Amino acid sequence: MAKTSDSPRAHARFKSPADRIFDTLNIVFMICLMVVTLYPFLNTLAVSFNNATDSVKGGIYLWPRDFTWENYKYVFNEATIFQATFISVLRTVIGTITSVFCCAMVAYTISRPEYVLRKFVSIAFILTMYFSGGLIPNFLLIRELGMLGTFSVYIIPGLIGVFNVIVIRSFIEGLPEGILESARIDGAGEFTTFMRIVLPLCVPVLATVSLFTAVSQWNSWFDVFLYNSSYTELSTLQYELMKILQNSNSSMNSGNDYASQFASSESGANQVTPTSIRATMTIVASVPIILVYPFLQKYFVQGMTLGGVKG
């Protein structure tokens, strides 16, 4: 009796015409999806490196027509931009580590069936996802706690994220209960079990939550506007970029029309425009997250898959 090969080539030879058509359409669809996904970013990158006044003419697609560094020089010439970048990195690192650790502890607590208040606490947390005190009560609370003008206002208010707690709790509930029971039999307390058993097993979901939290911390600027707008030493990169965009918009609306810009560009000066500044700011703000994401992608997919097994 002849043996049948299980290699992919053998399977490909015996595919029906319908399967081949499906594979072809699937490949074409995925290529189109990739182009649609990448094109906006590549176009923004091209505009950020293109002469600002030349970009007004349009027709910039995947590469700059008149290459220049002036847009980036304009952004990074701001005196506070590097201090703001340092604060953004600091709040992202500290905020992510503390928030993920606290969310994991809360998730472990409410995942334990022996905790009699687990349902009440879970409902209380979920209610905060639908109802909040509002902007003014939050501001008054922050003021009464003495956190105005302090770095802690970036960390403490967002220490517990309910969505992150639910994702981590779902993952923990899917862990084998026998492992936790073995740790208790060996004399480990709850905190020791959490630190030495649960946390190492939760690396995929913790990486997922870390990505969520880091992106949120990095992109946040409204809390700076509300609580620390008068303290330049506590300003963040996103807030400074927002102010640069506002300044460029106001300069464009103060009688400087596009005709005068083109006239000035003939003398060799590169005039910035809101469009070029917006594109440059987008690249500056997104590059750090883009550099970090590939290292967390494997854990991100695994954590979201396993964390969604139980509700």
UniProtKB/TrEMBL annotation:
Span of domain ABC transmembrane type-1: 85-296
Keywords carried by this UniProt record: Cell membrane, Membrane, Transmembrane, Transmembrane helix, Transport
GO terms for cellular component: plasma membrane
Topology of the protein relative to the lipid bilayer: Multi-pass membrane protein
Bilayer-spanning residue ranges: 21-42, 81-108, 120-142, 154-172, 193-215, 277-296
Superkingdom field: Bacteria
A GO BP annotation: transmembrane transport
SUPFAM superfamilies, sorted: MetI-like
InterPro entries referenced in this protein's UniProt entry, alphabetically: MetI-like, MetI-like_sf
Compartments, record wording: Cell membrane
Primary location: membrane
Pfam name, any one: BPD_transp_1
Family: Belongs to the binding-protein-dependent transport system permease family.
Name under which the protein is recorded: Sugar ABC transporter permease
